[in-house]
Amino acid sequence: MSKSTEKQHIKNNNKLPDRKILLDVGENGVAIISINRPPLNLLSVDVLLSLKENIEEAMRKDNVKAIVITGSRGNFSAGFDVTAFGGSQQRKTKRELGFMSIEFITDTLEAARKPIVAAVEGLALGGGFEIALACHARISTSTSKLGLPELQYGILPGFGGTQRLPRLVGLQKALEMILMSKRIRGEEAYNMCLVDAISPPNQLLGSACQWALDILECRRPWSISLFRTDRLAPLAEARTLLNSVRAQMQKQNPNVIHPLVCIDVIEHGILSGPRNGLWKEAEALHELRQSDSCRSLVHVFFAKQSTSKIPGITDMGLRPRKIHKVAVLGGSSMSSGIATVLVLANHYVIMKYIDQVSLQNGIDRVKANLEGHFKEGRMTQEHYKKACTLFKGVLSYDSFKDVDLVIEDVPDIVSLKQQFFADLDECCPPHCIFASNTCIVNLDLIGERMKPCKEIVGIHFFSPPSVIDLLEIVRTERTSPQVLVDLLSFGRRIQRTPIVVRNCTGFAVRRMHFPYLQAAMLLVECGADVYQIDKALNSFGMKLGPFRMVDQDGFQSATTHEMKFLETFPDRSHKSNLIPILRKSNREGESTCQGFYTYNDKGEASPDPEVSTYIEMARSMSGITIKSKVATLSDGEIVEMILFPVLNEACSMISEAIIVKSSDLNVASVMGMGFPAYRGGIIFWSHSVGSKYICSKLEDWSKEYGEFFKPCAYLVERASKGHSLGAQIKLAKSPL
Ligand SMILES: C[C@H](O)CC(=O)SCCNC(=O)CCNC(=O)[C@H](O)C(C)(C)COP(=O)(O)OP(=O)(O)OC[C@H]1O[C@@H](n2cnc3c(N)ncnc32)[C@H](O)[C@@H]1OP(=O)(O)O
């Protein structure tokens, strides 16, 4: 590309016309076609049709020798607009996507008589990435993000990704990227030969134009991805791999079919040829996009996106203040996990604790976490070196003068927390935000010894913070809109999904955990089997059944939470003696290798027949007798008797405006308690069950087994009107 054309293109880009596709022919005879639907250049049928027309126009023009496809304003394309899937609009575009894949992407773009090169900057995801895969070469910046995340929505790559990716990078790597929705950076893509060259952003278009001309003049290969075979393994080897991955997927996700359909489509292309594979892919996309799983997963995507939109707060025009330096107070593994997450997101972090030994342990854990990231290839050497300089451990408050945020993570002892915050009040700058990671101590109580003008908010991470991306931001009556805006932006920057909750016992996630475990305890005391309960909930799709979950959390924490819940919600708590009895026998859950299960050296759980003795003891202490109906419950009935009380608690939270939107509870249940995303989250799932049915079941059980099951007023009202359980939260009720 000549300098003048490039300048002209940049000039055009700064003041781009209101067209979805831009075509600009340079003096060198290369047409630059830009997808122009900022900010992410999302695709739709209209955009694709327009892209097709522009490519055809460039083909017709005599002055065009070659084509470069790129995206405007720093992104190639984040893929197809997901609103087209799982929702009401899907009928409109029935089968059009399949034809786009074959008639446009394959027969127009890939089969073009002039070379087409993709210049990839920023995001190239889903359909966007698939367009790049069909080009005759790809030039990328080192930091671009490429991937096929379609399985996250219960569909499969629908623009040829299932056929072209295995042919470009080999079956194993392609399966890894597709089935795990793995995104890779430009650099890694280059190492895998998925992109042909890396270029700095300011030279990207120039390099891509030159590459296209080089193809034309036979100095570079004219590669047709769909017909490459050099990276495909021999048939028998491919089949063995596909069968083993199929079995793995079936085991991991027994309730969903889309990963298996995707594997079948890939296999079909290998066995029957890529063009047949494309047709099968188109058919599969058409079927899958109408499935319940797709609807639910698309809901979860948008529910996650909307957690940081708070009416009356985030639309006030407040700009988030920058949070550069964060102090983490504490030396536990949770504190180290939080510090690691922050350092990885390029924050300067100081870790402070009171004694040298605990602090040193904390520091060592952060260093080990960072090293682990580097060794597993999740960060570059350069990033690793920089991350190490961003972190230090301290015993004093000397370096707190310029701290923007403090996250307290000391043991849940009120006087200890109060002392820390009273000290911090003296050492931190006025703008510093004070936050606690507690999920059980009242935030107002923690701040009692601070100056009256200071406020404390909650920033609640989940264990382990490096794995669970959810963040509860807990507001009190005094939390200002500015602090909320700051923390929501901070949450996104550290790549968490923040949900805003009101200060209450257990916040959103623990409040749902509690009835999950309590219902299970009650059923066991009435005669149900511990392991059948966990199995039933697993088969429903919960990551962990209640007993495996409490073993993992530890009985110490379960006891602390139980006491707090019994105190706050005595009317709807079932007091069980089971955990105290197990603790008397030194069973503390997974940490002691004995809880409801026993654990071997590898941490694998096995049912423990001895547990029945403890259950007998608990039963006789509570005076509960075995009820034959409970002892013979089916798996489906168990699921209802455990999850309807969770829904009941979720309904109480809606009516108390603990969360901002009912969809936040879907996010909280999926990310915080392992509710299956393909069922859309706890409230979304309830729509398929029906509020009337849920309410009548709870009413029946409350008559038979006690107040624990009594439906809350909100649930009764919604059911009586035949309304679904999700509702617009009346923010007037909340201090926001
Ligand atoms: C046929 C094909 O094979 C099928 C496909 O292509 S499926 C689609 C594949 N693409 C994806 O999955 C990308 C999904 N998007 C994301 O992961 C993230 O948005 C992102 C990493 C691209 C960008 O993140 P970030 O810069 O933080 O921007 P983010 O706030 O998330 O997005 C900006 C807006 O675009 C929307 N958006 C992003 N990707 C979207 C998509 N694929 N469809 C619809 N809306 C989308 C977001 O909801 C948000 O909307 P809002 O401003 O109203 O809240």
Q: State the shape.
A: globular
Low-pLDDT residue spans: 1-13, 731-736
Helix run count: 30
Strand order of the largest sheet: 12-11-10-13-14-15-16-17
What ligands are attached or bound here?
A: 3-hydroxybutanoyl-coenzyme A
What is the rounded Rg? 28 Å
Our estimate of the beta-strand percent is 5-15%
By secondary-structure content and strand pairing, the structural class works out as alpha/beta
Query: What is the total tally of β strands?
Result: 19
What does this structure look like?
Helix 26 (635-655) packs across helix 29 (691-705). By secondary structure, this protein is α/β, with parallel strands linked by helices. Helices cover 49% and strands 11% of the residues. Strands 12-11-10-13-14-15-16-17 form an eight-stranded mixed beta sheet, sandwiched between helices. A six-stranded mixed beta sheet has the order 1-2-3-4-6-9, with helices on both faces. A hairpin with a 5-residue loop joins strand 18 (597-599) and strand 19 (605-607). Bound molecules: 3-hydroxybutanoyl-coenzyme A. Residues 40, 42, 78-83, 97, 123, 125-127, 130, 149-150, 157-159, 305 line the site of 3-hydroxybutanoyl-coenzyme A. It comes from Anisodus acutangulus. It is found in: Peroxisome. GO terms for molecular function: (3S)-3-hydroxyacyl-CoA dehydrogenase (NAD+) activity; 3-hydroxybutyryl-CoA epimerase activity; delta(3)-delta(2)-enoyl-CoA isomerase activity; enoyl-CoA hydratase activity; NAD+ binding. It catalyses: a (3Z)-enoyl-CoA = a 4-saturated (2E)-enoyl-CoA; a (3E)-enoyl-CoA = a 4-saturated (2E)-enoyl-CoA; a 4-saturated-(3S)-3-hydroxyacyl-CoA = a (3E)-enoyl-CoA + H2O; (3S)-3-hydroxybutanoyl-CoA = (3R)-3-hydroxybutanoyl-CoA. InterPro entries: 3-OHacyl-CoA_DH_NAD-bd, 3HC_DH_C, 6-PGluconate_DH-like_C_sf, ClpP/crotonase-like_dom_sf, Enoyl-CoA_hyd/isom_CS, Enoyl-CoA_hydra/iso, NAD(P)-bd_dom_sf.
